[in-house]
Amino acid sequence: MNVLFLLFFVFPLTVFANDDNNLIISVPSQDSTLKVNEESGIIENLTYKTIKEIQESNLLGNLVDIDLPNRLVNCYIFYFKKGTATYQIAALPENDTTERFLENIDLTQFIAIGYYGIVYPDRENYNMFRGSSNQTPFDFLHEIDPKNYVSIAEIEMMAGINFDTVDRGGFLSPFYLYICYLENGTLLVLASPSEDRAESFFMGGWSFVQK
């Protein structure tokens, strides 16, 4: 998947008319059960599940730890351990909370926002924020560790570009998405939220969509 940080929800509709010529819209039922694709490692139907639901499914093992929001990753990261694999699930609370201890947190109030990572001991890790898998003019972004806090302003200087627009996200994506429209394609870069580009830091997620 080239653009991990773009989420799409597609609900097919069936529209037909009854004998009175009234339109009826039928939304077919869809399987929203939380699943793990054992072959690809992809977690399916994660978004909008509560951490409590994920815990009770036992698919990801035991809940063992939590990372609190910080300047770079402004969401909660819940850690599940199953066998030798560790699953990192990003979530946000429905209401503001000041609780800092896992044992005191109401897991029914935390909603998975669709971002996750998996740490494997015997194969390549699945990063929560990942870049394009295709060869692009911006592959140097693969070499930037988000923990080095490289700003969007610095990336503009390194790449010799200026980002045209910024998507300030929302509940499902509490990050900023910087977009640069070029002659040969569009560059999208995920960053921490800040109104100052010198204080908005690259998070490791990016994509280049060629024309």
Please identify the structural class as seen in this structure.
Answer: mainly beta
* Total count of strands: 12
Over the alpha carbons, how many angstroms does the gyration radius reach? 20 Å
Mean of pLDDT? 85
Distance between the termini: 18 Å
Tally the helices. Answer: 2
* Rough outline: globular
- Strand arrangement in the largest pleated sheet: 5-6-7-8
**Share of helix among residues?**
under 10%
Largest sheet: 4 strands, antiparallel
Secondary-structure element pattern, one letter each = EEEEHEEEEHEEEE
Strand content: 25-35%
Low-confidence blocks of residues: 1-19, 21-29
Number of domains: 2
Summarize the structure.
The chain has 211 residues and is mainly β. It has helices spanning 51-57, 152-159; strands at residues 14-17, 23-26, 35-36, 43-44, 62-67, 76-82, 85-93, 110-119, 165-167, 176-182, 185-191, 202-210.
Relevant terms:
211 residues, mainly beta, 2 domains, four-stranded antiparallel β-sheet, 2 helices, 12 strands, globular
Please explain how this structure is put together.
- The protein is 7% helix and 33% strand.
- The chain folds into 2 domains: 14-119, no CATH class; 139-210, no CATH class.
- The protein is globular, with a radius of gyration of 20 Å.
- It has 211 residues and is mainly beta.
- It has helices spanning 51-57, 152-159; strands at residues 14-17, 23-26, 35-36, 43-44, 62-67, 76-82, 85-93, 110-119, 165-167, 176-182, 185-191, 202-210.
- The protein is built from 2 helices and 12 strands.
- The two termini are 18 Å apart.
- Residues 1-19 and 21-29 have low confidence and may be disordered.
